[in-house]
Every structure is written in structure tokens, then in C-alpha cells.
């Protein structure tokens, strides 16, 4: 069915408090249409946040806003395309940073309504997203698995936040097989006694910031995966207290020693010039990716493009608010010639909507953490279900 052929009208909007993967409160939203079709969204939240992200409000205020502002304005509202619904939410908020309604409210209602609408028109959720995105997919997402955690995501001595394993295959089952094998090999190495970080990766102390890659490389070699995987780093450098020249030296070293294929947020969120220097230095065969630098915000993206600072960007729906704004940021990434990496947050829920977004837009990658925690495994399972429908 074409989206233009049938209008969906909203009957009710609700919210309740749930716990995220860190045991912290977040909201779960629900939208029911007059047809009876319904959708929900468990809203994720981050610990390491860029200062330009849209504003989250407290769970109590979020529930209140949905009950007293959103529901009265959306009850009976009809829409065909997601943009119509999301523009209504953005207008209700009326602020540049989503501080009135809250980005958590806008994202939760947007995704829940999108799921309800997809059911109403009898489309898989990813297909509904693709119809609203309006473009054909560019690739099958590679999985970026956070195998070792540090920084703000772990209580250890690593400065940097995520040490990632990236299988090169387009087959999600094969990716999961490789990731789990490497994870189990490291588990044996750490004797099953290592602390676990927020995103499911191992979090012991190390001799220095390069040792995690040494250990991962040894495991990959032992398992015979040297030719089918890459390594990546999310430095989250806004939270790293190291001199810029020392950071440059570290990135050059890990590129030389481990042929790093991906470096995210190598410098602080205002250091556009240093991003550009690194992109010029090693960007020809390395993804230099913005997250805190860009925060899924088209104004920040324009600055990064003007500075030629990056060649890839993290897309986090909760950094900007609605599904429509997320898709607009992805379109802008494509216009700029950047790789698109869809990402989870450190405070995740069992919701798997990022898997549908990554598949729908043909992202180059998706960050979903280690498959050792249920909130992360849910995204792996959804990718498998999409790629191999029963």
C-alpha cells in the first residue's frame, strides 16, 4: 500500500517509566491509532554526551508532558507521512534544542507513531522508514562491536571509550559468529573475571591505551580471522585529558601497528581543525568519524563539512529528536559524501529501532555493542530477522 492512500489517525498517546541497561530510569512511549494499530518505543539515553545534543528532560516531566501537552494535541490528528507527525511535535516544542517537550518525548512519540503507522499500512517497519527516507539503500551495514570498554563507559584505566571489532562481511549471521568467537577468546584470556563496561565489552585495567588492540589482534590471529576483520576506536576525546600532539602520536601509532580502519571523535567536540589534520593525514583509507563533533545536527554538520573535518558521521536519533530529523541528517551525510554509522547509546533499552533505520537507509555501519547483554543482543537479533525473514 502506498502511504498516500490511507490516512492514520491517532487515538491515544501514553508513557511509562522503565529501566535502561544501566538500571536508570527512562521512558517507554506508546501510540494507538483509531484503527487499533499500535506502536511503542523504549527511549535510550547516553552518558558521554555532546554539548550540542538535544535536551532530555526528567522521566516524571516527560510523562507529564505526554499526558498534558502531547496527547490533547495529537488525539484525532491524522497523517500519511512521518514528516507530518514529526513537524507537529517539533512545533509543539517550539525550541531549538527540544527543551520544552524534551528530546526523549519527541523521539519516543515519533518512533512509536511510526511503528503504529507501519502496522496500519501493513509494511515492515524498515520498509516504512525507507519510504519516508525516499532513497534506495547504498550498502549493507557492517557491525561495529564494542569488545573492550574504557573512558566514561567503564571503571578502568583506559582513556579511550570503545575498542571495536568490525567484521567485513555483509552477512549478519557471519558477523555475529566472528564477534562471538573473538569475545569468547578474550573471555578465556581474562579468565572470566574481567569487569564489564556499559556496552558489554571487557573492562579490566591495561598496561597502556594500545594494549587492548594488541590483545584483540592476538585473538583474531589465533582464530584465523586476520583477513576478514578490521579494528576501530571511539576515542570520545572530549573526555580525554591528553595533549593534542600526544593524541596525534597515538593515532599514527595504532594506524601503523594495527591498521585501524575507523577512528571516532579523535579530538574534542570543537576541534574541527585537528579533525581535518587527521583526516588529511590518514583519512584516505581510514574513517574519521564525528559524533560529539556533529551530534546528528545539520548546523554542526555544515560546519564539519566546511572544515572538511570528517569522512563519516555517527547518527543517533536521540541526539536530534524525531525520526524525520534523523532521516534528514542521513540525507545530508549522503550529500556531503560521508559514511553513515547508526549508533546505540550506552544506556540502552530492549528496543531495536536502530536496526531498522540502519537497514532502511543502507548505512555503512551500525554500532550495537557487544552481544553479551540483552539490550545489545536485541539489535543483533533484529538485523538477523530483517536479513533472513521467516
List the helices and strands and how they pair.
Elements: E1 8-19, E2 25-33, E3 38-42, H1 59-74, E4 78-79, H2 82-93, H3 103-120, H4 125-133, E5 142-149, E6 162-167, H5 172-189, H6 211-223, E7 229-234, H7 244-258, E8 262-264, H8 272-282, E9 287-290, H9 298-307, E10 312-315, H10 317-320, H11 323-336, E11 339-343, H12 353-361, E12 365-367, H13 374-387
Parallel strand pairs: 5-12, 7-8, 8-9, 9-10, 10-11, 11-12
Antiparallel strand pairs: 1-2, 1-4, 2-3, 5-6, 6-7
Helix pairs in contact: 2-3, 3-4, 4-12, 5-6, 12-13
Would you write up a description of this structure?
This protein is of the alpha/beta class and 390 residues long. It has two domains: 116 residues, Enolase-like, N-terminal domain (Enolase-like, domain 1), CATH 3.30.390.10; 255 residues, TIM Barrel (Alpha-Beta Barrel), CATH 3.20.20. Helix content is 42%, strand content 17%. The protein is built from 13 helices and twelve strands. The strands form two sheets. The chain has an eight-stranded mixed barrel with strand order 5-6-7-8-9-10-11-12, surrounded by five helices. A four-stranded antiparallel sheet has the order 3-2-1-4. β11, α12 and β12 form a beta-alpha-beta unit. α2 runs antiparallel to α3 and α4 crosses α12. The two termini are 21 Å apart.
Amino acid at each position: 500500500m502506498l502511504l498516500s492512500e490511507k490516512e492514520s489517525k491517532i487515538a491515544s498517546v501514553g508513557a511509562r517509566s522503565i529501566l535502561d541497561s544501566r538500571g536508570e530510569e527512562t521512558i517507554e512511549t506508546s501510540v494507538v491509532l483509531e484503527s487499533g494499530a499500535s506502536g511503542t518505543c523504549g527511549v535510550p539515553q547516553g552518558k558521554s554526551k555532546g554539548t550540542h545534543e538535544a535536551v532530555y528532560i526528567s522521566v516524571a516531566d516527560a510523562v507529564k508532558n505526554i499526558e498534558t501537552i502531547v496527547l490533547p494535541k495529537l488525539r484525532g490528528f491524522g497523517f500519511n507521512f512521518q514528516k507530518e507527525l514529526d513537524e507537529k511535535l517539533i512545533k509543539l516544542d517550539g525550541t531549538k534544542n527540544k527543551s520544552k517537550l524534551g528530546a526523549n518525548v519527541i523521539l519516543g512519540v515519533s518512533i512509536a507513531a511510526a511503528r503504529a503507522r507501519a502496522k496500519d499500512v501493513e509494511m515492515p517497519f524498515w520498509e516504512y522508514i525507507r519510504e519516508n527516507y525516499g532513497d534506495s539503500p547504498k550498502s549493507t551495514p557492517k557491525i561495529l562491536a564494542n569488545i573492550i570498554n574504557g573512558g566514561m563507559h567503564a571503571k578502568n584505566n583506559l582513556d579511550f571509550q570503545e575498542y571495536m571489532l568490525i567484521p567485513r562481511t555483509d552477512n549478519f549471521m557471519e558477523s555475529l559468529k566472528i564477534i562471538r568467537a573473538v569475545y569468547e577468546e578474550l573471555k578465556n584470556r581474562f579468565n572470566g573475571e574481567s569487569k564489564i563496561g556499559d556496552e558489554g565489552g571487557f573492562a579490566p585495567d591495561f598496561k597502556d591505551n594500545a594494549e587492548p588492540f594488541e590483545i584483540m589482534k592476538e585473538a583474531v590471529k589465533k582464530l584465523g580471522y586476520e583477513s576478514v576483520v578490521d579494528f576501530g576506536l571511539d576515542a570520545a576525546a572530549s573526555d580525554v585529558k591528553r595533549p593534542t600532539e600526544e593524541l596525534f602520536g597515538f593515532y599514527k601509532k595504532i594506524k601503523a601497528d594495527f591498521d585501524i580502519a575507523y577512528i571516532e571523535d579523535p579530538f574534542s567536540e570543537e576541534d574541527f581543525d585537528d579533525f581535518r589534520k587527521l583526516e588529511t593525514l590518514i583519512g584516505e583509507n581510514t574513517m574519521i568519524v564525528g559524533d560529539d563533533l556533529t551530534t546528528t545536527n545539520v548546523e554542526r554538520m555544515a560546519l564539519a563539512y566546511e572544515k572538511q573535518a570528517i569522512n563519516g558521521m555517527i547518527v543517533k536519533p536521540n541526539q536530534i529528536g524525531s525520526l524525520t530529523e534523523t532521516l534528514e541528517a542521513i540525507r545530508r551525510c549522503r550529500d556531503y559524501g560521508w559514511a553513515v554509522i547508526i549508533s546505540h547509546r550506552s544506556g540502552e533499552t530492549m528496543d531495536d529501532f536502530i536496526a531498522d533505520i540502519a537497514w532502511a537507509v543502507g548505512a555503512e555501519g551500525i554500532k550495537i555493542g557487544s552481544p553479551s547483554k540483552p539490550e545489545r543482543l536485541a539489535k543483533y537479533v533484529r538485523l538477523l530477522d530483517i536479513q533472513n525473514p521467516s
